[in-house]
Structure formats: C-alpha cells, structure tokens
Design the sequence.
C-alpha cells in the first residue's frame, strides 16, 4: 500500500497516459485548481485516495473516460452531469447528494453509488445497464416507474441492489423482463404487499434479499423454480403462508406455510425466514437440501417434527426455537411419536421373546421324541429276545386283524389279550 502526496509534477511528462489505476492506496492528490492535465484518460481508478472535499475540477477535461472509480475518497456535493454517461462509474462510500437523472444513456452499464446521501425518487433504468447499486442512501417512493418501463422491452440487468433506502409501495410484478438477473436486494426498505409471482421466472437468480420490509401474505411456490438460488433472505417481514401460483407456474403446496417443493432448490446454501408469522410444518423436502449450511426459522409459528437430515441436524438449535413448537434433532424437545415408537419397540421385543419360547417348546418336544425312539430302536437291536417278541407281536396282530371282519368286537378284545400273553411267552423263551 502506497502513501504520500501526488501533484502535477508526477503527470508532467505522461502525455500519452490513458489508463491510470491506483485504487487501494492511501495517497493524497494535491493539484492546483487551474491545473490543465496534458493527458486524455480512458480509465481512472483512485479508490481510497484522499481527494479533498470536492470532486476535482480537472476531471471536467476528461470526456474520454469510460471507467471512473472515486470510491471512498471523501468527496461531497453534486455529481457533474456528464458523469452519468461513463460506462463504469463507482462513486460509493462518499458524501455525495442530490437527485439522480434517468440512466437511459447508451453507455451506462455499471453504476455503484452505495453509501452516499442521494435522495428523491429512483431513476429509470435503461435496458443497457447490467449492474446498479444504489443501496444505503435516502431514495424514497415506489420502484415500478424505475424498473417496469414497458418501452424498454427485455433488460440486461444482472445485479440490482437498492436496499437500505426509504422505498415504499408494493414490489411490482414485472420480473419476467429480467431474464439475466443474478442478484436482487430490496432489503431494509418499507415495501408492503405480497411477493410477486413473477419472481419465479428468474431462473438465473442466485441471491434474493427482501429482508426488513413489511411484506405480507404468502410465499409464492413459484420461487422454487429458481433452482440456481444460493441465498434467500426473507426475514423480518409479515409472511404467513404459501399458495399456488394462479398462472400455473410452480408446483402446488400442501397445508404447510413453507412451499412443499422448496427442496427443489438443490444449490441453496443459506435460507433465512426468521421473524415472520409462518405456520404449519416444515416440508419433508428439506431433507433433500444437501448444500444448505445456514438455516434460520426462528420467531415463527411452525410446529411438528424437524425433517431428518444430516444437514439439519448440524444446525444450531437456536435457528428453530423462539416462538416455534418444533421437535426432534437438533432441538432438545422430543416428539410425542418418539415415545410411541419406544413402546412399540418394547412390545415387539416382548412378542419376539414369547415367540422364541414357543419355538423352543417344539424343539424340545421333537428332541424328546427322537431320543425315545432312538432308545427303543437301540434296545430292539441289542436285545434279541425283545426283538423276536416285538416282531412276533406284529405278525400275530396282522393275522388277527385280517380275520377281524368275521368276528365280534368282544372276541377281538379277548384275542388282543391272548396276543399280548403269547408275545411275552415267546420273549421269555428266547
């Protein structure tokens, strides 16, 4: 970082100088009021220099400038009219004031006037502007006249930052005219009404900031069409629910206040819906938001179980409490279903034990039968007399049964006794 003083002598022999970039240094520029520079600059960047209280008068001779950076140089007063034709203009973090004319010129592409004291209505923006930052000033009134001029057709705007002003009225529903928008910041104003459905047409959008306003109504489900979103901040409003897009853009949502298909935004890393009046349950699609590393739902009226997700379990519990009635990790409040699941698990274990007891009964019964049969068969093999008696008994039984159809039942019983005695007699003989 350079320090010191720069004066006319440093430029005396630089007659062919067209680019001079020296931002980020703490140099002081001291030139006489009547200095006539011998150069014609196209690019001049003096960010963070000490230029004094006023815009240097010698700049009025540099009509060839295409890029000018006088940010954080301490200048004040009104901006020269011809400055608004510079292609890339950065006058941020100064004490400049006054109104801004319409930015409709063919050369106005990028304009940064953040953190000054500009006031009045917002200027109309031409369709050639790609970046405009008018944040942290004192602009007032609505914004429809500024960004919804139907005569301009489709806009090339990529970044729009008008947060931190005193803007009022509703957010206009003309965002379909901005297919290239990547960043929108309307936060810290006094906007009222609902979030327009055409926000869902911004398929290139990466950052949406509508925090600290007075927005009410529902979150349009069409916002889930912005699948490239990385950051959403809708905190500190009066949002109360979700709705179906009447034009059929987006997917319908259920009874929850947060759109059920919010999980379609797979690239979302930061989501802040805190300090609203949202109600209902958290959609299960939160479990599919694997890129999410910051979530704040505090100070709402949400209820029910927090969807199971590794991402959500790693969040701070304070992001889910303060007004909500949520349960399950990462908050310490247990869900009522958890107790029921515990009882069901105990009952299942008890039934399983009973089942195992019944199974063991049959196992032991079968084992006893097998042991008894094996003892009987072993005895017949080893004891010849028992074996002969057993087979003699079977032979006699067969003969008697064969002749049984010609005898009386009582005779059968008597013959049965005779067979037993005969078998025993033969067994003893052998």
Sequence:
């Amino acid at each position: 970082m350079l320090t010191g003083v720069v004066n006319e002598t440093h430029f005396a022999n630089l007659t062919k100088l067209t680019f001079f970039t020296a931002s980020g240094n703490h140099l002081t520029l001291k030139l006489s009021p009547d200095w006539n520079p011998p150069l014609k600059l196209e690019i001049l960047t003096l960010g963070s220099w000490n230029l004094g209280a006023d815009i240097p008068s010698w700049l009025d001779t540099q009509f060839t400038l295409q890029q000018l950076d006088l940010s954080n140089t301490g200048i004040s007063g009104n901006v020269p009219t011809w400055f608004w034709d510079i292609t890339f203009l950065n006058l941020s973090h100064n004490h400049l004031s006054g109104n801004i004319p319409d930015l409709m010129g063919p050369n106005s592409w990028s304009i940064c006037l953040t953190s000054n004291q500009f006031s009045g209505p917002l200027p109309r923006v031409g369709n050639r502007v790609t970046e405009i930052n008018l944040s942290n000033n004192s602009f007032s009134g609505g914004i429809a006249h500024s960004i919804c001029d139907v005569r301009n057709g489709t806009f090339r705007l990529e970044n729009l930052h008008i947060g931190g002003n005193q803007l009022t009225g509703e957010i206009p529903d003309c965002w379909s005219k901005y297919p290239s928008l990547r960043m929108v910041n309307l936060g810290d104003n006094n906007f009222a009404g609902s979030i327009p459905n055409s926000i869902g047409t911004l398929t290139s959008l990466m950052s949406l900031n509508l925090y600290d306003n007075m927005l009410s109504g529902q979150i349009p489900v069409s916002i889930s069409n912005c699948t490239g979103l990385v950051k959403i901040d809708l905190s500190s409003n009066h949002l109360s629910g979700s709705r179906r897009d009447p034009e059929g853009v987006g997917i319908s949502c259920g009874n929850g206040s947060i759109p059920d298909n919010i999980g379609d935004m797979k690239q979302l890393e930061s989501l802040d819906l805190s300090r609203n009046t949202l109600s209902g349950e958290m959609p299960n699609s939160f479990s599919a938001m694997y890129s999410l590393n910051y979530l704040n739902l505090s100070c709402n009226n949400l209820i029910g179980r927090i969807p199971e997700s590794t991402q959500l379990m790693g969040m701070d519990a304070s992001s889910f409490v303060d007004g909500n009635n949520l349960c399950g990790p990462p908050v310490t409040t247990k869900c009522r279903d958890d107790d029921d699941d515990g009882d069901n698990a105990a009952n299942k274990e008890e039934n399983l034990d009973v089942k195992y007891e019944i199974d063991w009964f049959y196992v032991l019964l079968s084992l006893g039968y097998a042991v008894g049969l094996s003892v009987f068969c072993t005895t017949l093999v080893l004891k010849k007399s028992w074996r002969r008696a057993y087979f003699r008994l079977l032979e006699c039984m067969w003969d008697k049964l064969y002749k049984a159809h010609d005898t009386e039942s009582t005779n059968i019983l008597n013959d049965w006794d005779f067979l037993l005695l005969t078998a025993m007699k033969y067994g003893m003989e052998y």
The radius of gyration is 45 Å. Residues 218 and 242 are 4 Å apart (CA to CA). The mean pLDDT is 82. The chain has five helices and 25 strands.
